[in-house]
Design brief:
The protein has 326 residues and is an alpha/beta fold. Strands 2-1-3-10-4 form a five-stranded mixed β-sheet, with helices on both faces. Strands 7-6-8-5-9 form a five-stranded mixed β-sheet, sandwiched between helices. The longest helix is centred in the C-terminal third of the chain and has 20 residues.
Length: 326
């Protein structure tokens, strides 16, 4: 009995000791659609990176920028993975959101149209599908139309669902045009659709895939957020350097049986991911200009640093975390 009591006492001391093992902390991260630019967040779970960095990570799909931000602000989720434009209007009004890093600083879209639409001017009077108003697909269309000097009012633009739904809309001719990213762009090309423009080839940068959290959550749970950033950063690095693992993640999450489409999707996105996952300030400025077209409060001189907090990335840089991964 004395020996048994001794073991129990030792166990209690071990559990209460500093640095003792504890259950992985639960965090919830939302992604906004099934497209190649979501690869790194999917990899954090598929490759066991959440667990490796002491987190029990749950991923949820929330389509549409406004819905994702509503879930974040209400504390229903801890992180939102999507376009930086989602958080800018909220922050401009003093909302409790902040961007802590970003994996993709370019538009990943191509403007795809029915095969008889051969030039941008042919879009006049046509129906164009986007994911949702106020999100990155909406802004991508606005950017393309602005470059082509085509008034938005000259065509019908409406929310038509996620990328698979919009591809189906093209196939059934419910849509005349939309913006898509791989693998849907590859499928559209096989269908004979016209590629009017590859928006990723534009010089302008854009915060397409960023990590957003609540500023209050970062302040109160800094170590948790840092572990999340570590896990996500490692996933970005793996995507850029290990093609087999990246393709395996895409195969599972995109549910695409065609290996050639998966490979083309990987070859498109892998070189474009940013490592370390830092934010291109010019992209934030471009996003603010686009947001400002709809929201007059975004006009004028604005300190872009109010939208960002890369202090965790700075810490990881000083600690040599990124060098160890290279």
């Amino acid at each position: 009995m004395k020996l048994r009591a001794l073991f129990v006492f030792a166990a209690v001391l071990l559990i209460g000791a500093p640095g003792a093992a504890r259950a992985d902390e639960r965090v919830v991260a939302a992604y906004d659609g099934f497209a190649g630019f979501q690869g790194p967040i999917w990899a954090t779970r598929e490759l066991g990176l959440f667990k490796k960095h002491g987190l029990n990570g749950e991923l949820v799909l929330i389509t549409g920028a406004a819905r994702g931000m509503a879930a974040l602000v209400s504390s229903s989720i801890d992180f939102a993975m999507g376009s930086g434009t989602a958080s800018l209007p909220i922050r401009l009004r003093g909302g409790d959101v902040v961007i802590i890093g970003g994996a993709l600083n370019k538009f990943p879209f191509s403007f795809i149209a029915q095969k008889e639409i051969r030039k941008p001017a042919d879009l006049v009077g046509k129906k164009i599908g986007i994911l949702n108003f106020g999100g990155s697909t909406d802004l991508a269309v606005a950017l393309a139309l602005k470059e082509w000097n085509l008034p938005r009012s000259s065509m019908t633009i409406f929310a038509a669902g996620g990328a698979p739904e919009r591809l189906a809309g093209l196939s059934s001719r419910v849509l005349d045009a939309t913006v898509l990213s791989p693998p849907e762009t590859i499928a559209a090309a096989r269908m004979g659709m016209t590629v009017l423009a590859n928006l990723s080839d534009l010089k302008a940068s854009f915060p397409q895939t960023v990590m957003t959290t609540r500023r209050s959550f970062l302040e109160k749970n800094r170590d948790t957020v840092k572990r999340f950033v570590r896990a996500y950063s490692e996933a970005v690095h793996i995507f850029k350097t290990d093609k087999a693992k990246g393709m395996a993640v895409y195969t599972k999450w995109l549910k695409q049986p065609d290996a050639k489409i998966i490979e083309a999707t990987y070859d498109y996105f892998a070189p474009r991911f940013s490592f370390p996952p830092r934010i291109d300030r010019d992209g934030i400025r471009n996003a603010l200009e686009l947001v400002g077209d709809r929201d007059r409060e975004a006009k004028g001189d604005i300190n872009i640093e109010q939208f960002l907090d890369e202090s965790l990335l700075d810490e990881l840089e000083r600690e040599g975390f990124f060098k160890k991964l290279r």
